[in-house]
UniProtKB/TrEMBL annotation:
Pfam name, any one: Phosphorylase
Functional summary from the UniProt entry: Allosteric enzyme that catalyzes the rate-limiting step in glycogen catabolism, the phosphorolytic cleavage of glycogen to produce glucose-1-phosphate, and plays a central role in maintaining cellular and organismal glucose homeostasis.
Protein name: Alpha-1,4 glucan phosphorylase
GO biological process, one term: glycogen catabolic process
Reactions catalysed, as given in the entry: [(1->4)-alpha-D-glucosyl](n) + phosphate = [(1->4)-alpha-D-glucosyl](n-1) + alpha-D-glucose 1-phosphate
Modified residue annotations for N6-(pyridoxal phosphate)lysine: 682
NCBIfam families to which the protein is assigned, alphabetical: P_ylase
Cofactor(s), by name: pyridoxal 5'-phosphate
Domain of life where this protein originates: Eukaryota
Amino acid sequence: QDEYLDQWGKALEQSPLANQQTDVASLQASIAYHMNASLFRTQHNLEKVAVYQALAHSMADKLLLDWNRTQQRYRKDNPKRVYYLSMEFLLGRALDNAMLALHMKTAYQEAVQGLGFRLEDLLEQERDPALGNGGLGRLAACYMDAAAALDLPMWGYGLRYQYGLFRQSVQQGFQVEAPDDWLMRHHPWEFPRDIKYDVQFYGYVATKMNDKGESRLFWESDHKIRAVAYDVPVPGKDGFCGNIRLWASQPPHHGGFDLDAFNQGNYDQSIASLKDAFLLTSVLYPNDNHQAGKELRLKQEYFFVSASVQDVVHRFKRYRCPWSEFPNKVAFQLNDTHPTLAIPELQRILVDVEGLAWDDAWDIVTRTFAFTNHTVLPEALEKWPIYVMEKVLPRHMQIIYDLNLFFLQKVEEKFPGDRDLLNRVSIIEEASPQQVRMAFLAVVGSHSVNGVAALHSELVVKELFNDFSLYYGKDKFINITNGISPRRWLYQANPGLRDLITHTLGSEDWVADLPQLQKLAPFADNLEFQQQWMAIKYANKVRLTQWIRDDCGLTVDPRALFDIQVKRMHEYKRQFLNILGVIHRYRVLLQMSPEARRRVPPRVVIFGGKAAPGYAIAKLVIKLINSVADVVNNDPVIDDHLKVVYLPDYNVSLAEKIVPASDISQHISTAGTEASGTSNMKFVINGGLILGTVDGANIEIRDEIGEDNIFLFGTLADQVADIRHAQKYHGVLLDANLQSVLDAIQAGVFGDASIFNPLIDTLTYGGDFYLISEDFDAYIKRQNDVDALFLQKAAWAAKSIRCTAGMGFFSSDRSIGQYASRIWKVDKTALGNGSTSTAD
Ligand code: GP0
């Protein structure tokens, strides 16, 4: 076939795909082509959504070529590759991102304008792929983006859920969930592949002879489901394009159709295995920082890692390297414990299938895996009952027992006679029922374990894995502080600010070298610059105002202080504290004279975020916010002094509109509970100040931008345990202001009080676990500081500029660079840079 390669190359160059002309006429030609050929529609039947799709196809063409070149080059050069295993990728929309990455937005803008459409309207037609819950999934997306921008040979592996995170609406103040049918319309950003692996479940383990006459354990089962690959291109720079491979479940052979059953009239039976297969990857579990422990979820996890590991092993074998080379060619990063079964899965393949000795296999496994922990909250730590694991994955359960035994023997060697220690570090928890502690399995099977912010990594070592750090030594446990993509979260989301920064710094180099933002600092006190800076903020607030009008039917004044808290609804994130503070503010405003009231800057308090459908208390907080909004927004005495907004269906594309429009955003978790937070970084890089606790990455943000440019308050992480202890024995003495707020709720000021009882009980009978009362006074005072500063326009603007200037550290490029050098031991492939021709 080789003799025809040239001919193929030439043919491709002549094809419409290779037409890289970016003049308006060529782009219009490609849009019109796709309208007719890909969508099978004509110009006589134009809806925005169809034009969006034709446009997306046209853009995807350009990406495809980059994708093919990049992946071909890897196949040829065979560098060490990184595989980022994540059950969630919260990618957000693709079109705008792709156009900007390939510098084609202006050209396309003109092209669609000439065809009678506004690009902004078309961009709004794209559905968000919401294959993630929150921070963890969005981090994975920012990391894929960074790897692509850095030319790093990293692939993401994940699941292609038929239904993403549920869509949220608010009815009578309550959250209502609807399925997120994101594939309803054709999605032009994924490419189905003819790549399939069978994944089995249940069954039994038998002893068999292998070819060499050795007896091996063998796992057999009739219950198989097929994984098929869908590739999602990740636009990089300079012709480089990364990849996320998502697995969808399909019936195994013959499409799962049982013809015999059909012929006998057993119609349900005839499609039974089809239903099974469909269900497996049908829906993303909607829990954030919480494990629900359903068997189907365990099957999703195994399906995901089995297909991914098979794919990677297959790719490795293509080069006929010895197995000992595996860790030099492959790095697996576990995005939390969800993919931890990849560890026993690789061990199983190496020992049972490939015939390696146990210890050799284990050496390979542990040099290949690394593990990122994202939380210390006990309710989020995955544990699977042994009886479930034994049933679904009998061979893996045996392997885990053996791994645990050998591990505990070594611990015993190092610390003889410490039975308590053995109990504490055992991968098997001796409870009833006995459970597999997935985080421990991940630690034992990995060569490196990292937390996601400095404080969090400290707590990981001191609390979660203390015994392990004593056994392994400190080097295994490191910190890599999270980062965000400056491309999506500043360059794309805030064009006004992007242009001002580029103009001021003289080029766009800052995007790829974020610490250059520091060069903005000298302009912080420049009045003219401040005016330009704040004019952009104002324009972004106006844009959000329109969104609030369309979405909530509420008119708010863009000159007011925009105070924003958008994130998953969770008790530890304390949206409850925020809304209680709002009620306090409302009451204070009511008691003021009209003159005094006018001296307080008007505020718009904006909330957004989904609650897990089973999380009753979090859902009640949503109800309380909406009830308070009803009263406050319609109180004539309050007028525009205070408005409360709950934006439904918070997601990535909404975040892109909200983040650039904040004056203040709140990151007020109980100290020690928020591993990192990443939206805090997004707000600050866009010149938004933050009001926050001394928690997660807030601490490092403070260190980078300076104490004067951030409003911190509240209990410190190392005080929390003592306070909880005291509360347990002496009860909670509620803050006086807080007590009056609760009294107002219970007096029915915000409607039927009884529904809020379970919520209020979390403060009183519940022992105020999240320290809302403890922090209430400091919170109110800090809010008053915010008011005071907002009245000093120049001082505020100066801080806003210093915020952006100090954020260079928080680029996901920096994070990925650290993962690459400290954990994966891969360098940016020098191969990438511009040399995109692999026709040779
Ligand atoms: C952590 F354990 N996170 C979990 C989880 O189940 N889901 C999730 O989103 C988050 C943390 O809460 C975080 O602090 C962190 O920044 C993020 O993972 C990425 O590391 C919220 O932003």
